[in-house]
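Case study.
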Amino acid sequence: MPADTSAPGLQSVDDVRDFDAFYVAEYRGLVRLATALCGRVDVAEELVQDAMVSVLTRWRRVREYDKPGAFARRVVLNAAVSDRRRRKAERRALERLPVERVAWAPEISGFWNAVRELPARQAQVVTLYYVEDLSVAQVSEVLDIAQGTVRATLDHARRSLAARLRLEEEA
Amino acid sequence: MNDRFEELARTAGHALDQVDGGAPRPATVRRLRARRRAGAIAGMGVLAAATAAAVIASRNDGPRINTLPPVTDPITSSTTGASTPADEVALLVATDGGFARRTSAATALVVENDAIPVIGFRFPDGSMLTQVGEQGEREDLDTRLEWRHDGEVEHLDRYDGAAVLGAGLVGGKPAVVLASSTQIGSRLLVVELTTGRERDAGIASGGFSGVAHADVVDDRLFLTTFSDCCGGSFLFAGGVPDVDSLLPQRARDYLWWVAASDDGSEVAFLSSTGDPSASGTRWILVVADLETREITTNVEFDLGAERATWFDFDGRWAVVSGGGINDSCPACLTDVGVIIDTAAAAPTPVAVPLDAMATIDRSHGDRSGG
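After joint prediction, the assembly is written out as follows.
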């Protein structure tokens, strides 16, 4: 089947191939990120699909970036935070329905539940740092903020999480 | 930082490794484009749900429907395997080039548009309201409304990004029901297009939240909401802003889509027992006479693997648009819709490949565009 190049952002068969390769390479990592922030795999998949649509529409520009994956991560992280806000009311009504959730040990679930209670920026930094194993410099690159800001945000997040999880350092 | 915390954080981070999200869905361009169309409207529902909460004073007068039909015993039950287009209803659909008028025989281009078409409404006077999207700097599709009448195109900039919940007539003139958390500040408004007059639908913070869908006919607003406190769904109708409850009790099903007949004598709504925003949901179409309170149609159907993206009803035809991605057939783009002739002796869902969100074209044969 010939490649469909009619979408905005795609003008050649090479564009389509490049985007498909990008999609396959980044998909799982993006779903993991989104899952950490929204707590549901099905919602995470939706967010990643939406993010990919966003990337697709501006693919010719994004492909020229040094790290297109970083752009996609930023889109997913922002979408996950926005989704958390806008779906709050809807979720309350729908959460009575059986949905497939990730089966984690209680302490793992507790950790990510606590992360999701953090301010948005802190949650994003923690997710990138601990899920993606990114360095402070890499987190700074993805979120487009200063490394010092990343360090400070991470420090605040750690302290807040430790307190919530009752893992404060013994005096 | 302490070791116990670091160990837990690292373990929690690596626990995400078990999440692979399944196999990457094939990233064919067609499927992503279809998703963008379907997602645009789904997103509107979410926006409305998150931002609008209803303060609605229920009154004991006025017409009510006091019972919901049983879910397990519909009058007619049918799958959507057939693919016979209805012959008598003309639909307005989004196409690659803009908006088109579609019948079983042909599709005639009505409006060309460089932007991404989302949904269009054509009114009896031939005027047309369209919502289109643009690529913007923001991650989300930026949408705007265009009002085409008397050979002119009026951009309704004030409502950029607003969610369109329905369109109809107020005093015989075209009107649209909008919700927005940005441009008009978390309000549900009925906007009369010919005059620009806005009327607040009485939606504010309160015990009910999440307006899912709305319609307006002859100064009566119809809307579905779900309760923030107790998880039920509610159907309301009435004058603006005093909206009465049609189903005052908490419904055990989700009432998600609603539309009134063009003459305002009937209300039609879709209910589901499962997640109304999910794909594969089983729906029941209910049509009720507002004067006699009798339920005149009760039809069960589904959209296969698709999710409902729009619903329209003119008093006879009920049109449900579906959209999304068919995971069972990665190479397929199967935007399926359902048309039901509620005037038939035994109303039967007929599947049609709509490939877009469809509304009933009410311009009565005028193909020239507004």
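Observations recorded in class. Chain A touches chain B through 66 residues (CB under 8 Å). Residues 13-38 of chain A form the longest helix (26 residues). We will return to this complex in the next lecture.
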